[in-house]
Design goal:
Strand order of the largest sheet: 1-2-3-5-6-7-4
Structural class: alpha+beta
Distance between the termini: 42 Å
Radius of gyration: 15 Å
Order of helices and strands: EHEEHEEEE
Helix content: 10-25%
């Protein structure tokens, strides 16, 4: 199923903001099953100032974070998976992480996340980040809801 999820929809679903919002667009979505999102990598990203000035490479942990944000979008766009109260959806684990290709300015990172299983507010995902059909990173991600405390 196609979905033209733009940045306004993403910002409505995720609490992240610049410079930590790492998803620009949702290109495909299948309710409760999978999502494909896009991250356009630009030299203007603040992390490139120090990683590395003479050879800018997107940090692997930020590629994993982009995949985790895509997993959050999959969950928040699936009404049956969202909790009834206000919560944060947090990273709780990473297994089998592999980095195959450096991601550099000008690349378009394609973030594909598939739900493996979901139970009682926790979920496990297969996640794959590619650039021009070449694998940049892959991992199994685990995320879970944490209820926010009530505001005074």
């Amino acid at each position: 199923m196609k979905n033209n999820g733009d940045i306004l929809e993403i910002m409505n679903l995720l609490p992240h903001r610049y410079p930590f919002l790492l998803v620009d667009k949702i290109s495909e979505f299948e309710d409760g099953k999978s999502i494909i999102a896009i991250k356009n990598v630009s030299l203007n990203e603040p992390f490139f100032n120090g990683h590395f000035p003479d050879y800018p490479v997107m940090p692997g942990v930020l590629i994993l974070e982009a995949l985790a944000q895509a997993s959050g979008l999959l969950v928040f766009k699936t009404p049956s998976l969202c909790p009834p109260n206000e919560s944060l959806y947090l990273f709780v684990g990473i297994d089998k992480a592999r980095f195959k290709k450096p991601v550099i300015p000008g690349d378009q990172l394609r973030l594909k996340v598939e739900m493996k299983k979901s139970k009682q507010g926790f979920a496990v995902f297969d996640a794959l980040a590619t650039v021009e059909d070449e694998v940049a990173a892959s991992a199994e991600l685990m995320c879970g809801f944490k209820e926010l405390p009530k505001k005074l």
